[in-house]
Amino acid sequence: MSLLNTYLLSPAVNILLFYQSFHKFLYLSFFYHLNQIVFSYNSNHIEGSRLTKEQTRHIYETNSFFSEKDGEEIKINDVIETRNHFKAFDFISEKNHEPITQDFLKELHRILKNGTSDDVIGDYKKIANYIGDFSTAKPKQVAQEIERLVSEYTIKTNIDIKEIIDFHYKFERIHPFEDGNGRIGRLIMFKECLKNGITPFIIDVEHQAFYYRGLKNYENQKGFLIDTCLSCQDEYEAILKDYIDGASIDLNEAYSTLEKVVSWFGTKIDG
User: Fold this and answer.
1) pLDDT by residue (tens digit) across 94-152?
2) What does residue 12 show for φ and ψ, rounded to 5 degrees?
3) CA 114 to chain centre
4) What is the pTM of this model?
5) What is the CATH number of the domain that holds 139?
6) Total structural domains in the chain?
7) How far apart, in whole angstroms, are the C-alpha atoms of residue 107 and residue 118?
């Protein structure tokens, strides 16, 4: 008798596999939930959002907002962009194997900024902007600069984390959108890590100063930004390992639970 027939004819095996799959599903769902909250909170906070992690969690779980103290002033854009970041994360997760194109970047920006008070959403900037003391690409140069950057990047093979970080720096120096460039850039880094089989990472607020220093000094010292990203990757990898370990199945526990379940149906388990 084939393994498939054994599987189809054995209620005990069916229930055991269901238990294992459901157990893993709960952990994976919780990890996805954590990703959404941690990524949105940190990336928005780096850009000046005043929302706390608990407020971010509440928006994700209930699609509503609460004030933690009387008289607290929260920009409506902070709330909208937090909610939009959840959608943007879903977008890059679902489309992680797609190449980066100008249309892809514009659609990601449209998702992130949809419903905000921004003048230009889903398209490149109309007015010049700056990163601290650094000038960025002029509005008329953006399409050409982005096309060059994307073309040079997408023809590469065996992309590693340093090339992803290099793309991020060059994208931020162009600063193609009037607002949201940092968040778009960090979402793209996460996407490209997924696409290329590299452990992704989230730049958190604890690394914010090092991250900005890395961007500022990248031309002269690439190591600052690379080391910051690798440190964030190490932290993410540790969290990921905890959840992978947590999702593993203890077969003794599984069989104990299974014994109770199948006893309801009068099915005996052969060890």
Assistant:
1) 999 999 999 999 999 999 999 999 999 999 999 999 887 778 999 999 999 999 999 99
2) -65, -45
3) 18
4) 0.79
5) 1.10.3290.10
6) 1
7) 15
